[in-house]
Design the sequence.
């Protein structure tokens, strides 16, 4: 199984564990993460959630082979897809979610951080959102939230050029709380998550709901609009060229488009 879950001392941990493929997320892994988030929400023993990866890699984003062989559909069944269920579960959970970004965070590995309450990043991590370079468009409401968080120009570097950025820049832009030495990041994130054992759980949950209520509809609308475009773009010749280039370990050639 590529997603490991465990609940210990009030913290439900979701560990992405597919290091041989740089923690790329398959349909089954999205489903497992959605189920784990929903279980954490329902379990009164859980006070907070910790999402983490492997040393050197948080996640390389969506599995590109899945993109090629079974691209998620659009329309009404898109809402039932495991990736959408994962997004909805992360948006709906009212317990604090802490991310320990243990290494590279690419694509949804970076955009999911926009929906976590606390984000701690390894000093060795690089983050990137290379949707355009893959012939795609931003997802998980990043087209809405990233410009709102850091301003259009800094968001354009990340979303239009796909420029990778450091953990320090992630903190400076408001995407992360702090940079930690690689060996410390999970321990620190866990300590933060465990602090919720000493806080009144209903007050925490109601406060999180209050903090998240403004803009929630706009976030769902953005996810839907992005999802329709994303799904169409997955089938585009530009995306096909980008995916093939990735597996052939060469630079894509967009000059013909
Ligand atoms: N989907 C599917 N497979 C992936 C993957 C992904 N997102 N990311 C890595 N892999 C696979 C590689 O194909 C390779 O498989 P192989 O050993 O069978 O050839 C293996 O994981 C190791 O990856 P590799 O590229 O050799 O490692 P690296 O250390 O040189 O580079 C990354 C690591 C993460 C920088 C690089 O793999 C990468 O850029 N991945 C794609 C990221 C991406 O574009 N994600 C989609 C965002 S929407």
Sequence:
């Amino acid at each position: 199984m590529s997603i490991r879950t465990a609940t210990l001392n009030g913290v439900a941990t979701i560990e992405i564990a597919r290091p041989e493929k740089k923690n790329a997320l398959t349909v089954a892994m999205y489903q497992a993460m959605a189920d784990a988030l929903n279980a954490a929400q329902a379990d009164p023993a859980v006070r907070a959630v910790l999402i983490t990866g492997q040393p050197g890699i948080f996640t390389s984003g969506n599995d590109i082979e899945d993109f090629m062989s079974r691209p998620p559909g659009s329309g009404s069944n898109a809402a039932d897809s495991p990736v959408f269920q994962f997004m909805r579960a992360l948006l709906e959970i009212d317990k604090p979610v802490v991310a320990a970004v243990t290494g590279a965070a690419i694509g949804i590995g970076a955009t999911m951080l926009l929906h976590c309450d606390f984000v701690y990043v390894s000093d060795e991590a690089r983050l990137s959102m290379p949707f355009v370079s893959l012939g795609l468009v931003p997802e998980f409401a990043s087209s809405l939230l990233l410009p709102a968080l850091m301003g259009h120009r800094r968001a354009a570097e990340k979303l239009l050029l796909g420029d990778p950025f450091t953990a320090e820049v992630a903190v400076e832009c408001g995407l992360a709380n702090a940079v930690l030495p690689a060996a410390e990041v999970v321990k620190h994130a866990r300590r933060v998550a465990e602090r919720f054992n000493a806080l009144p759980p209903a007050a925490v949950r109601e406060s999180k709901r209050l903090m998240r209520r403004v803009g929630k509809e706009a976030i769902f609308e953005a996810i839907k609009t992005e999802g329709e475009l994303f799904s169409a773009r997955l089938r585009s010749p530009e995306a096909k060229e980008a995916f093939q280039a990735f597996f052939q370990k060469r630079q894509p050639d967009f000059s013909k488009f």
